[in-house]
Design goal:
single chain, Porin, 14-stranded antiparallel beta barrel, 3 helices, globular
């Protein structure tokens, strides 16, 4: 237990030394719920969507977990997606809550392509609880680690775009746009950059192949993700993912009831702490209510990824 405790402190403070501020949690299933970091994906597909995600990161290390809730829909009268999202993250003695209202405006290009611009606005509440470290008798104080509890509630804004055709998608986003990349504060948000793309290939009448790539940047840290997904009749989805430096995982999704789907993922990192953690589990339960508005039928159906 003592060794695990010190490794937990090492992992936490190693991350802080890189970012010096609150960064976004990186969901392994982010391609299935891009609204969490890109407001331009809000209302995508035209349905009313709701989801709950739980991520248990680095099983074997205490105090590391993330939850997310989203609700979104499409308003055909104003050609816009509207939604609300909430992320609750715990990482050692640090906690944060991020609540946002998302808005996306859609611009169609005949029945060939669709472009959307998005804005997310809300608040972020960050807490660093120094007493959680000071209160443990095994903890040896480090002069570089803050010894005072810090709390900050900040206005927060995200921006993004997406461009879709029936079989191609590309997008980008910036979260916490009003905060600089070099802010030096544990409880102050820091700007995050995202870019991603994926394409769909028809294998046969029942199967699709959907490869994709994602880039995420925080300060000088660059994360790349490459995925290869296979989808069967929009009812079964299997995705194999590699994330640098050496992180491998698999995502499986299935429709288990009308309009309901369950998505589970497991990923494992082959880093120096691999002997002390047992990987990461992530579970999402999502509900979609089909909406048959004229605008959706005529303009949005061609690019819909439907279930995933």
């Amino acid at each position: 237990m003592m060794r695990r405790f010190f490794y937990t402190c090492f992992v936490f403070w190693g991350t802080v030394c890189i970012s010096h501020a609150q960064t976004d949690p990186f969901f392994f299933q982010q391609s299935n719920n891009r609204m969490l970091f890109n407001p331009a994906a809000t209302g995508k597909g035209g349905d009313v969507n709701a989801s709950v995600s739980v991520r248990q990161q680095w099983v074997g290390f205490p105090g590391i977990s993330t939850q997310a809730l989203t609700f979104s829909g499409f308003a055909s009268g104003i050609q816009s997606g509207l939604g609300v999202m909430c992320i609750i993250d715990a990482f050692g003695p640090q906690r944060f809550k991020n609540i946002k209202l998302n808005y996306a405006f859609y611009v169609p290009f005949s029945d060939i392509a669709l472009f959307s611009l998005g804005l997310g606005t809300g608040i972020m509440h960050n807490v660093y609880r120094a007493e959680e470290l000071r209160g443990d008798p095994r903890y040896d104080p480090d002069p570089h680690i803050p010894t005072e509890t810090q709390v900050k509630t900040s206005p927060d804004f995200d921006i993004g775009f997406e461009f879709n055709t029936r079989d191609f998608e590309i997008g980008g986003a910036i979260t916490h746009v009003v905060y600089g990349r070099f802010d030096q504060n544990l409880v102050r948000p820091i700007r995050n950059f995202y870019a991603y793309s994926r394409v769909r290939f028809l294998i046969n009448y029942n199967w699709d192949f959907i490869p994709g790539i994602t880039w995420h940047n925080v300060r000088k840290s660059h994360t790349y993700e490459v995925s290869a997904a296979f989808r069967h009749n929009n009812n079964l989805y299997v995705n194999f993912v590699y994330r640098n430096p050496v992180n491998l995982g698999m995502i499986v999704g299935i429709n288990f009831a009308p309009n309901f789907r369950l998505i589970y993922s497991y990923d494992y990192g082959f880093s120096n702490i691999r002997n002390y953690n047992r990987g990461t589990h992530e579970v999402t339960v999502a509900y979609s209510l089909p909406m048959n508005t004229t605008y959706v039928q005529n303009r949005m159906r061609f690019f819909r990824w439907r279930v995933f």
